[in-house]
Structure formats: C-alpha cells, structure tokens
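Quick note —
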Amino acid sequence: MEDRPVEEARAVAEEPSDPRNRADVGGKVNAIIEAAQAAAEEIGQDARRKAREILQQAETMAASRIEELTGEASQLRDEADQYARDIREAVDSYGTQHRQSAEQEARRLLADAEEQATKVRNTAQRKAEELERDVGRRHETLQKEARMLEARKQRVLESLRDLSAQLQDALAEPAAKPAEDESLVEALDLERRR
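Predicted structure written out below.
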C-alpha cells in the first residue's frame, strides 16, 4: 500500500516520451504528488488507528488483571483489605507502565509513518522534477531539429529553383547542333553558353 505512489511515479517516469503525452505531463505530475499526499495521509491514519488499538488492548488487559487479582483477595477477609490495597497499587502501576509503553510505541509508529510519508512525497517530487527536465530537454532538441530541417528545406528549395531556372533557360534556347567533339556535360553547361 505504501509503495503504490512510488510505483505510479516509476510507471510515469518509464513511459515512452510521446509528443501526444507532453500535454499530460502537468496532470501526471499533479497526480503523482496527490497520490503521495494521499498515501501519507493514509499512513498517518493507520498509525493513529494502531495507537488507539494498542491503548484499548492495554486498558482491557489492565482491567482483566484487576478483576483476577481482586477475586483472589476475597478468600481471607483479614488479609483481603491489605492485599487488595497492595494489588490495586500494583495494578495501577502496571497499567500506568503499560499505558506509557503503549503511548511510546504509538508515538514511534506515528513518527515512522510520517518519516515514510515524507520519503514517499520527496521521491515523487524528485521524479516529477526529473520528468519535467526531460520533457524540457526533449522540447529544446525538437525545436533545434525543426530549425535545422527548415534551413535544409530552404536550401533544397533554392537549389530546385536554380535547377528550374536552368532548365527553363535550356528549353528556351534554340537547339543548336552540338559539335561532334562536345561532351554531354559541355552541352548541358548553360553558364558557358551565355
């Protein structure tokens, strides 16, 4: 139960970087943080519930012990009063000690739960920050690639325009009979003919 936010954060971080998912990054980051907070709240509630159960068990055990010890005291009337007082004091002391140890255990469980919740929240926050950095770097890379492709497209278009102009010039010129010793490359060299 406590590993669920970490697993969700890991699943989000391992998802392939898809351009369609870029718009969902903020939502995923928020979902990770909310899951971590929900897990922290749930861990805290579990710790408080366990503490209440421990206190109830301690009180039940103390009450049970009191009844057992006071039942034996009724056998001897003369000794019963002194015995009952001694037993009550012992039981009170035992109950106090047991209650104190139960409260200490409850505080320890609560502190552990809060520490674990903080770790989960911090891990989720780090994963979210890493994801945001990765998306930013990918976005910058794609922008650079788009600019390079646009420049390449412009160079190709310019080359095609030049080639088109040369072809139009070649088609517009009257066909002269090439000299027999003229090669194909020389015949196509429009710059030399101008």
